[in-house]
Write a structure and sequence with these properties.
- With about 220 residues, the protein is an alpha/beta fold.
- The protein folds into two domains: about 130 residues, ATPase, nucleotide binding domain (Nucleotidyltransferase, domain 5, 2-Layer Sandwich); about 70 residues, 2-Layer Sandwich (Nucleotidyltransferase, domain 5), CATH 3.30.420.40.
- The protein is about 35% helix and about 25% strand.
- It is built from seven helices and 13 strands.
- Strand 9 and strand 10 form a beta hairpin.
- The longest helix has 18 residues.
- The chain is elongated and about 55 Å long.
Length: about 220
């Protein structure tokens, strides 16, 4: 099986191509210039691996929450590639990707992404399962969540900022690979969903949690 996965939901662009248990991956801090880099790097990973694009069986992409622009670009390209390759597409929540693989930790796992305006995107996971909704929450209210658990493991690009914001909170531990986009997790979760019979409907879209700034401006007029 040949699977292509990519994540454009944060400033770290991640791409992973797998065929017969061989992995070819690319990650780079691309800012939010995913429209300039994604297709170019996808072409490069196929050519450097020697894998024929037409052999692709599944497209997987991260669907947020995260950058509004990055998510729109990623979902649009995923749908276009799936249509062009004639294969199905699966989208995976970004917070699920960031928390994947930590089920062995004895405590709560919380991926943290900067949501701007003094807020973060997060959710709580335990034993490999999400146990809260996807949250768009003020940073200074995270303490209420932390005190619910004996130990909390933080991951995601904004996790160190939260560690600094709560210096006296002894429950918090930063996982060693907190700043990875975990693109292999995106691929693994997508394959698992596909194996379970899932497939994105034609009208599927990103998980935004909140309206974009443009939508908020429009709503205020």
């Amino acid at each position: 099986m040949t699977t292509l996965a990519f994540d454009t939901s944060t400033e770290i662009l991640g791409i992973c191509l797998e065929q017969d248990d061989k992995y070819y991956s690319y990650t780079a801090k691309a800012g939010l210039k995913h429209s300039e880099n994604l297709l170019k790097e996808i072409d490069h990973i196929y050519s450097s691996s020697g894998i024929d694009k037409k052999s692709t069986d599944l497209i997987v992409c991260a669907k947020g929450p995260g950058s509004f622009t990055g998510l729109r670009i990623g979902m649009s390209i995923a749908k276009g590639l799936a249509d062009g390759f004639g294969c199905p597409m699966i989208s995976v929540p970004t917070l699920d990707i960031l928390s994947y693989g930590y089920s062995y930790l004895k405590g709560a796992v919380m991926p943290i992404l900067d949501a701007k305006s003094g807020k973060v995107f997060t959710a709580v996971y335990a034993d490999g399962k999400r146990i809260t909704d996807y949250l768009d929450i003020e940073k200074n209210k995270l303490g209420d969540i932390f005190t619910t658990y004996d130990e909390v493991f933080l991951t995601g690009s904004y996790a160190p900022a939260i560690m600094e914001l709560y210096p006296a909170e002894k429950r918090l531990t930063l996982v060693p690979d907190w700043n990875s986009c975990h693109i292999e997790n995106c691929l693994a979760l997508g394959k698992a969903l596909f194996a379970g019979g899932s497939q994105d409907p034609e009208n599927s879209g990103p998980i935004y949690i909140r309206p974009s700034e443009a939508e908020l401006t429009k709503m205020s007029h």
